[in-house]
Each structure stands twice: as C-alpha cells, then as structure tokens.
Amino acid sequence: EIEPDSDFTAKDFLFASNDYIEKILKTHRVPIIIRGLNSCIEKLVEDHVFMFNYKYNSCYIWIDVERSILNCRVNMRVDKMVNAGLVDEVRKIVIADADYTKGI
C-alpha cells in the first residue's frame, strides 16, 4: 500500500508494477495496466533493467484524443465531481498547518 503523503516517482511505479505483474502472472491471470501518467507507463515499458518488452507478451492500446475534446471531457468531469461534493470532501481532510508543497 502506498501512503498518500509519500513521494511516489516513476521509478517507484516501475518497481511496484513489476512486483504486481509477477504476482498476477503466478496466478495464471493476465495483468492489465490502465490509466496512470504516460511517463510512468513509458518508464515501465522502456526500462532496460526490467526488460518488460522482452519478458512479457504485451498488447498496448493508446487512446489519442484531440486536446479540445479531452479538455471538454475533463472540464465536465471536474464539474460533476464538484457538484457531487468534492470541495466538502477535501475540506474534511485538509490539515490547516500541513506542508502541502509535496502534494497530497
């Protein structure tokens, strides 16, 4: 489990993903990696130490969306989240004197 206040880098993602992929494969199931930052996925696929492309049979599906369409969908999703109570939810977890320079 990853703590919400931890610094979790693309390299950390690489190590964690590799561990989970191995565990899933041992159960004779197919690991599916979805979402995440492109930089994390690229690091996983391109890293020479783990040799992801050589160790695993892989299928990649990338969705390329025109920026204006993506922005419209993101804006609608954010509006929906705010209307569903996101601001109140965040207010409940914010600590007034916390250091949020590293993100939450």
Give the SSE layout:
Elements: H1 10-26, H2 38-46, H3 52-55, H4 67-83, H5 86-93
Keywords: ATP-binding, Cytokinin biosynthesis, Nucleotide-binding, Transferase
InterPro entries: Dimethylallyltransferase (IPR039657), P-loop_NTPase (IPR027417)
Pfam families: IPPT (PF01715)
Q: Care to describe what's here?
A:
This protein has helices at residues 10-26, 38-46, 52-55, 67-83, 86-93. With 104 residues, it is mainly alpha-helical. It folds into 2 domains: 1-62, no CATH class; 65-104, no CATH class. α1 (10-26) packs across α2 (38-46). It is extended and about 45 Å long. The model has no long low-confidence stretch (mean pLDDT 82).
Beta-strand percentage? under 5%
The helix/strand class is: mainly alpha
Could you report the average pLDDT, rounded to the nearest whole number? 82
Number-wise, the strands total 0
Count of alpha/pi helices = 5
Could you give the order of the helices and strands?
Answer: HHHHH
- Major beta sheet, specifics? none
Q: From the alpha-carbon coordinates, what is the Rg to the nearest angstrom?
A: 18 Å
Terminal-residue CA separation? 15 Å
Helix share, percent:
40-55%
Low-confidence runs (pLDDT<50, min 5 residues)? none
Tell me the overall shape. extended
How many domain units?
Answer: 2
